[in-house]
Each structure stands twice: as C-alpha cells, then as structure tokens.
Amino acid sequence: MISATGLTVRHRRTTAVDSLDLELGPGVHALLGPNGSGKSSLLRVLATASGAVEGELKLLDRDPRRPSARLEIRLRLGYLPQTFGMYRGFTVRECVSYAAWLKDMPSLRTPRAVERAVEQVGLTERIDHKYRTLSGGMQRRVGVAQALVNSPKLLLLDEPTTGLDIRERERFYALMQQLGNTTTVVLSTHLMEDVTSCCETAVILHSASKLFQGSLQRLREAGGYSAIVPDTP
To answer: pTM surpassing 0.90?
Structure first.
C-alpha cells in the first residue's frame, strides 16, 4: 500500500525527511519519534497534501506525482492531520458529510456512511450537535470519523488519541485492530500505550532519518524506544 525509496522532503532549507525507504502493507503501523523528527511531514506527503522533492513513492499502487493517480489516491484514503478544524457552526453530521462530499462519495451512499463513521467513534448521540459545543476530545473523534467515512484503504492519523479519555481510547484501539485486517493504517503518536494497544509494527524517525522499522517484538528486543532514540539536549 505504501512503497517509498529514497524519499526526501524539504521545507525551504530544512530537510524534514531524508532518503527514506519504507514498505508498509495492511495492518496498524506506529510512527514514532521526537518533535521535529519528520513524522507530520511524512504523513502530509503520504496524504498527498504536499510533495516530496526526491525519491520514488507509490500509494495504493499509484504514483501520486500523476494528477489522475493523485485524485484516485485521495478518494481512497483517510487523513487526520495533527491540527484538525471544521466549520464550528456545522453539526457532527454536516462535518462528516462535508468530508464525504470532498471525497466524491455517491450521494445515495453518503447518509449511511456518515452514520456508520460517527457510530464507529461513539458519537451517535451527538450526531446533530454543533461542532463548537463538543469537548476537545469529541472534536478529535469527529476528525477520526471524517477520515473513516469513505472506508479508506489507506488511513493516516496524526496524534488521533489526543484528548480522549480511557474508555474512548479503548474503543479507538479496538477499531484500529479491526481496520488493520484490510487497511493500511499509519498512526503517528507520542504515546507508547497507543503503540502497544493496537499496533503491529513501529517505524521510528529521528532527525529526519529512519532509525528503526520492525515488529513490536523486535523493538522490545532492541531495548525499546528509549534505547534506539538518542537523548536530545
């Protein structure tokens, strides 16, 4: 689902991702690393929200550099950025319906798809409440719902559990485990609880480079995250 060779991303003179090789298929994959390691920049490229400057990238067996292929990818992916906002006057239903419209979903399919996505994040009772009236954790769950509405084959989530209470985290972990059977899920997080509760593999970035990729068992055998990532001053 994701195949990258020598992928390099720059922001002006700063290299955010440096010569990354990456192969990810169906399953739930953690993306770890300290602030500034390149996690969000990588997710933006995988979401086709920005482009790489060097290297090769295939998403869902398509080349995102081609406009027609990029459109096809966007219709099949779900993306929750680290900073997510929505029209505050919209209801939850309208927020997720708007995301479905952006993904060019058939109008006849949209109402049921919206209700399913809202149910998946546990917001059915709030579906007709205004977005602005929701708590921060609930607004984050709306962000997850909009990413799920088109039943994506590639799901990219940047800090999705921010603001979630223990019960909602457990719901989220169960949902990710279920989706991972057929979907390639990349979950960027700072929380090892997220990793151990729902992820199968981990990718660790540091200073724009990949330090580790492998199973959680391999990560434990290597001494864990703190043994791989050098201390920063």
So the answer is: yes
